[in-house]
Each structure stands twice: as C-alpha cells, then as structure tokens.
Amino acid sequence: MGNTRFIPALTVALLLLNFVVSFSTKITTNFSADQSALLALKAHVIDPQNLLATNWSSAFNICKWIGVTCGSRHRRVIALDLSNMSLSGIVPPHIGNLSSLTWLNMRNNNFHGSLPVQLVNLHRLKYIRLSFNSFFGVIPPWFGSFPRLQYLSLSYNNFIGEIPLDMFQGLPRLQVLYLATNRLSGRIPIGLFECKELQDISLAGNRLKGILPKEIGNLTILKTLQLHNNMIEGKTQST
Ligand SMILES: *[C@@H]1O[C@H](CO)[C@@H](O)[C@H](O)[C@H]1NC(C)=O
Ligand SMILES: *[C@@H]1O[C@H](CO)[C@@H](O)[C@H](O)[C@H]1NC(C)=O
Ligand SMILES: *[C@@H]1O[C@H](CO)[C@@H](O)[C@H](O)[C@H]1NC(C)=O
Ligand SMILES: *[C@@H]1O[C@H](CO)[C@@H](O)[C@H](O)[C@H]1NC(C)=O
Ligand SMILES: *[C@@H]1O[C@H](CO)[C@@H](O)[C@H](O)[C@H]1NC(C)=O
C-alpha cells in the first residue's frame, strides 16, 4: 500500500529517461547524418590542394573541420564555407542531408554539373553563394522554395534558359540577388518586384530582353540595380 505512490513517480522518471534517450539518439543520428553528408561531398570532389584530405577525417569532430561551423546547442552543421579552395567535381545529393544548414558558400571553385534537387530540403538556408564556378543547366524551379533566403548569388556560372517564372514568390525575404554573367534569356519575371526587401540586384551580362516593368518602383529600398549587357529596354524616370 505504502509503495503505490511511488509508482507515478517511477513512471514519470521512466518516461523522462525514455525521452532523454530518444532525444539524444535523434541528435546523434543527425550528427552522423551530417558527417556522412560531408564525407560524401569529400568523396565526390577533386581537391588539388589537399585541404580536405586529412582535415575532414572521421577521427576528428566534424565541428572542427575546415569550412564547417556547428550550432552551439545541437552541434549540427549550420554553415559550410568552401570558398576559394580550388575544388572541382559535382555537388552530390547528400548535401541535402545537412538539415540545419543556414549558410552555404562555395564561391570561387570549379564545381560543375547541375545542382542536386535535394538542396530543396534545406529549408533553413538564408545564404547561398555559388558564384564563380561552372554550374550548368537551367536555374531549377525549386529555387523558389527557400522561405528564409536573404542572399542568393549564382553569378559567373553557365546557367542557361529563362529565370523560373514563379521563383520569386517563394523567396519573400530576399535582399540580394546576383545572377550576373550567365547565359540567361527571356524576360525578368514580374514576381521579382514582389520581393519588397530587395536591396541589391545584378542581372548584368546575360541575354535578357523586354522592357523593364514600372513595378521596379515597388522596390522601395533598392540600392543597386545592374542590368547592363542585356537586351533590356526601358525609360528611366526621375521623380
Ligand atoms: C533530424 O534529421 C531528420 C531527417 O533529416 C529531420 O527530419 C529531423 O527534423 C532532424 N532533427 C533535428 C532535431 O534536427
Ligand atoms: C582542420 O583545419 C582547421 C582550420 O584550418 C584547423 O583549425 C584544424 O586544426 C584542422 N584539423 C586537423 C586535424 O588538421
Ligand atoms: C575568398 O576570396 C575572396 C576574394 O578574393 C575574399 O574576399 C574572401 O574573403 C575569400 N574567402 C575566404 C573564406 O578566404
Ligand atoms: C543522405 O542522402 C543520400 C542521398 O540523397 C541518401 O541516400 C542517404 O540515405 C541519406 N541519409 C544519410 C543518413 O546519409
Ligand atoms: C506594385 O505596387 C502596386 C501598388 O502598390 C500594386 O498594385 C502591384 O500589385 C505591385 N506589383 C508587384 C509586382 O508587386
């Protein structure tokens, strides 16, 4: 009789233990998912300066690997900076497993091929900088699926075709858009002018055509707009 009141306490303790165990299992699982995603990336790239060769080793914590930043609480990979490393090769689909990533910088390498659709799983991305590479193909329509994206640079690559028509509806937080020096054609999608937070735009050095729509005036905090070396027409009004 006297022991029955311990039963609820014991149940609570067991539930708590169960919660702690499953919670930490989940974090460990995701931590090793991050590790295997980065090791898959390493296996796919050519690394002439051997920057990753010994540094990205499973003998060390991934949070200490070059170019990798982890969050302070969950130890998940939140930023990946592989800029200026002379890396070449394709970006493997495994990158889509870095589910806490907010910041991706691969600027100034020789990555080629098209971008893996699995990138779309990275809903937390705020910053994507892939300029100065040899990425090829159309800008995939799923690029319009990053609700938190503030910075997008795909300049100086080999992107072809039209800018996806409804891409910008899915990028409500966009502040910076650099698509310069590719081989983009067609018109500027009107949805661009709904991204009210835009401050810097460069579409220079493509094959874009058409008339610059008056809705450009809707972008009230725009600071720079570069459209030169295209076939865009328009009259500028000073008001
Ligand atoms: C762990 O990864 C899975 C699958 O990628 C994801 O669904 C889940 O939200 C992640 N958990 C945490 C705590 O990030
Ligand atoms: C990997 O590179 C980082 C950054 O340069 C450095 O701090 C770390 O000590 C390196 N780790 C190993 C095992 O060489
Ligand atoms: C990469 O190079 C650019 C241009 O030279 C420089 O501004 C940037 O700081 C470099 N990034 C890193 C991580 O070294
Ligand atoms: C990571 O991504 C790849 C390819 O998208 C997939 O095959 C793999 O099962 C994923 N999960 C882990 C934990 O690596
Ligand atoms: C531009 O602003 C006008 C007036 O506020 C609005 O009617 C129109 O829908 C806006 N257009 C775009 C593309 O955001």
From TrEMBL:
Organism: Gossypium aridum (American cotton)
Name of the featured protein: Leucine-rich repeat-containing N-terminal plant-type domain-containing protein
Coiled-coil region list: none
Residues in Leucine-rich repeat-containing N-terminal plant-type domain copies: 33-70
A GO CC term attached to the entry: membrane
Signal peptide per UniProt: 1-22
UniProt entry keywords in alphabetical sequence: Glycoprotein, Leucine-rich repeat, Membrane, Repeat, Signal, Transmembrane, Transmembrane helix
Location in the cell: Membrane
Cross-referenced InterPro entries: DNA_repair-toleration, Leu-rich_rpt, Leu-rich_rpt_typical-subtyp, LRR_dom_sf, LRR_N_plant-typ
Membrane-spanning residues: none
